[in-house]
Amino acid sequence: MSVLVVTGGASGLGRAIAAQAAAEGWTVVLVDRDADALAVAAEELGVASTAVDVTDREALGAAFASIAERLGRIGGLVNSAGLTRPGPSEGLAVDDWKLVIDVDLSGTFYSCQAAFDHLAESASIVNIASIGSTRGLPERVAYSAAKAGVVGLTRALAAEWAPLGIRVNAVGPSWVDTPLVRDLIASGTIDEQQMLDKVPLGRLCTPEDVASSVLFLLGSDKAGYVTGQTLYVDGGYVWAG
Ligand SMILES: NC(=O)c1ccc[n+]([C@@H]2O[C@H](COP(=O)([O-])OP(=O)(O)OC[C@H]3O[C@@H](n4cnc5c(N)ncnc54)[C@H](O)[C@@H]3O)[C@@H](O)[C@H]2O)c1
Question: Where does the record place the Ketoreductase domain (predicted)?
Fold first, then answer.
């Protein structure tokens, strides 16, 4: 199996995707800006890592070049680095708006762009979107805008890079049991029971649910004719009305 780079790999979904990918034989490299958490995750998973902030296009370019030089061309890229700054839209600080757009949207694009020169033939990219890509999430305006943008850039890159054999898809999870969602519950931004009432399958998504879908899209054996799509891993939430 080839090299898989996972941004946001130090925590939550990125880490779960990395664990499942490593178990399936990918040579995984974690990328994250949190050097301490990254070192712990890399040690525990037994994979390589490199500390990079995805908003730094130049640093990403150097990181992908170095990964390709050490381990070979990159067969898979998962963009899971992300954050949110919830709160009433009318009072959202400009710095918070910029941060969320920079990390969740621009960071995803910069990572795809920086990886491009180092991708293997038939490489596959999976961007982590959200139910906020297609549904209105109150008090998460920057996050919703960024994640809608992730779906847009996924479609555009899929169309542009398909002739080169590169597939680009997205996975849109609903509320996953990760530190990000636990923080939103703790801060009162979302109510756990109200959230579960909206999910037809009646439970929170697990990181492993997301990882399985990401691994499906990464693999050209099963998803070789799938590109430009966003797969909502949401227990039925998005289309439940
Ligand atoms: N948890 C959920 O319920 C949920 C639902 C839908 C989508 N998502 C998306 O999944 C992705 C991962 O979320 P998570 O729940 O695992 O969160 P998390 O906070 O557990 O992990 C996010 C990781 O991204 C890293 N990161 C943040 N900013 C970065 C930057 N500028 N450069 C490099 N790394 C950076 C963090 O250090 C962290 O390790 C995010 O894009 C999030 O929007 C999460």
Answer: 2-178
